[in-house]
Design brief:
2 copies of one chain form a homodimer. Chain A is an alpha/beta fold. Chain A has helices at residues 4-12, 16-22, 30-38, 50-55, 68-74, 113-125, 143-148, 163-168, 208-211, 231-245, and strands at 24-28, 45-48, 64-65, 83-88, 103-108, 130-133, 158-160, 176-185, 195-200, 216-219.
Chain lengths: 248, 248
Amino acid sequence: MPAKADLQRLRSLREKKHREALGLFVVEGEKVVGELLAAKLAFSEIYATADWIAAHPGSQPAPVTVTPAEMERASHFPTPARVLAVGRIRRTPLPDSGLTRGLTLALDGVQDPGNVGTLLRIADWFAFDRVVLSPDCADLFSQKVINASMGSFARVTVHTTPLAEALAGLPGRTPVLGCDLAGTDVHTLAPLRDAVVVIGSEGRGLSPGVKACVTDFVTIPRHGHAESLNAAVAAAIVCDNLRRAAGH
Amino acid sequence: MPAKADLQRLRSLREKKHREALGLFVVEGEKVVGELLAAKLAFSEIYATADWIAAHPGSQPAPVTVTPAEMERASHFPTPARVLAVGRIRRTPLPDSGLTRGLTLALDGVQDPGNVGTLLRIADWFAFDRVVLSPDCADLFSQKVINASMGSFARVTVHTTPLAEALAGLPGRTPVLGCDLAGTDVHTLAPLRDAVVVIGSEGRGLSPGVKACVTDFVTIPRHGHAESLNAAVAAAIVCDNLRRAAGH
């Protein structure tokens, strides 16, 4: 049985300041906990109702049994789930080689957590080597980001770093691709082994410092009248064309 | 000055049953009202604060001035906007030629309103001839759908119809493309002038009746480990490849 203070601590993790202070994040719900367990994420604590525990023998770490009433006190949702899991916040520093090698998806001020999660899922699908978040993106450890990533949160390497600085330090031969309405047709991309794809925020697009580092503006051919595409949608189309151009 | 009953009526339009009973829908906020006015949507009523009206001379129909306190009573949001507009629900029946000609994006039980709106935006970007919604999709006239469409709501022709029946009536030569993990590589699509792209719900995929009508399963090549892509993301990649294959 968990202590009352434990339930309060779990509940407090919905706020970024408490996550940072404790170095912990929380996810709630059978779907997301199941996805992350399947992706081999090592949780530090699991809290679940007796029926969830009975249905998931051998879960690691051993779950603490909570009653539905206790879950209600810990829960972040109007309708509490049957399971809630806590993980340690681990941040991977950007290695010295930075963004030079392989494929990087770089998010510049993407503040919608659903979009950040969807972009992690896209990076996972297309096997990008890493995702880089500028510090003003939605918090990677928020439930909305983790839920929207559909388990990709546990599989993709993510670094948070000032993006313009990281891009400015790149050797000249690493292409930095940005989306624009007046760039090169994305269908004519050269085969690239190493590249950074930068995605701006929905409202403001790329920040000036990041935009200055873009070496190749690419355009998704438009046939109708929409002003733009959603950030994640545009990123996915660029990733598909990048992989297609590289012939693998 | 609006009557109290008017404010209540505006507020009631957040619910589908009231929209259906009155044959009206409402949108709120400067961004979405501006997008729809720019797209030449003919509203039947506009309610706005004096400062909005002063900043938008000549708006049609002539706006009714409301105080911030009145807006609060009419508003659907915790923070009321400065403008709210009402339009008539118009439904375009599917013509006899149905889905035979041109490009159709067909949504099969897509229940997330953000996804439905994003898919309208994608159909607009790629100049699809129409979007077809199965009756169990998110309501086209809900604010979340209209907001997420970023103005495409006013530009795309949308029909709501039982999808499996509409597809079953197609002549055999109109290809119906569905996404699948074991289909033909989407990069090898033949040039198609007429086609229907069907998109299933996030959770359940295509319904059995619609799945039975798919003539060509296509696969977006996967390089990593994500189980799937978001419905709108997958649709956008298929649309880009369809347009690319047709060479325009």
